[in-house]
Design a protein that fits this description.
This is TIGR02678 family protein. The protein has 410 residues and is of the alpha+beta class. The protein is 45% helix and 14% strand. The protein has three domains: 176 residues, no CATH class; 103 residues; 100 residues, Arc Repressor Mutant, subunit A (Orthogonal Bundle), CATH 1.10.10. Helix 1 crosses helix 2, helix 4 crosses helix 5 and helix 12 crosses helix 15.
Amino acid sequence: MKRIHQASTSTEPSGGETIGTDEFRTAAQALLNRPWVTKADDPEVFRLIKMHYGPLRDWFYNHVGYGLILTRHLAKLEKIPGSFQPWMGIEGFQSSRDYGFFTYGLWYLEGKGNGEQFLLSEMVDSIREHLLGIEIHVDWTLYDHRQSMAPALKKLRQLQVLVAIEGEEWEWAREGGDSNVLYESSPLAHYVLRRFPRELAASGSVDALIETLAESRLEQVGDEEGADVVRRRHRVLRRLLLEPIVYDWQWEEEERRYVQTQRSFILRQLSHVGLEGSRFREGLYLSWPELTGEMALFPTSAAISDLALALAGELRRRIGADPRAFDRDDRGNLVVSLSELEGMLMRLKDRHGAYWTKDHREKTSAVLAEELIEHLEMWNLGARDDTASVRIYPGLLLWQGEYDDWKDEA
């Protein structure tokens, strides 16, 4: 979950209710932001989830359409994005082949018992033979193929579904040949792949696949509430939970009306997991009131966030001096040429370069602008318009970044 941080106050629910209490919020945030919670790694949070299982299960099922799995050793929330975004990919994966090998690694582990040991060479040979059966050719003597398998294996280890007993997969990726790794299968391996109500081949697209999951969630909808209403609520709350900002113009028409007319209900429900909201002209903003949390927060600790805040301050100063300093589109976004953006970054460097990292000081204006645009796109604060301009979304202008000038008074 990616979330904007904005300082604000909060109130505790009355009457000792389970939903909305500190314990409920802690458990809900862990479920939303981790692949799963295991008893071995975090016994305290696992205890909270087990203690509040009923209210957590019902809240996520009714309001977001997520299923909650709880076993003796693991708690997992089966999350589905309301809208797929580029930043939702697996960090370190560079191509579709990386994701394919990750998936077939899970396929291989599905056939292994808990604690069963095997060699990397056995695993990759089985995957190669299976793929040959469906006319996909993999050659582990090729460096590129091994380089795609290595990050997949690394991610499987990070998820603790694959345990390395001896050896290192990066040696195999670099050298191939006789390099090998001894692995052990973990019981967690059987909880990564989602169970679908029908064969994947029956869905012709990702949207159709998501609709299949939605239908399975709606089987218990009563006569008092229509399936279309539930689908809309699920889509809206999923996006608001997982995405940093969703502007009114980014919703479908029915979803936008729902957000605008059901604002009080939405804010009340999302407050149960600790989020606080405010309505602005361009949309509903949800923020996290604390400086730390389970989710990824903006501003991030990366230096590029400092540049984004400094740019916000520069834009606000320019607009304050001349409200027509920049063109605006019909959605209220600023339209800034790339040359003007680079010029602002260079002026900021001239004034405040001493506060910048060495890497940012040495980058050309074009490279620095590209890095900044990618950061803004990740947080839905702006986007490249074309090869000559960028659109700055209103969310960025809620910030005012300044460098404090100081002198040594000693």
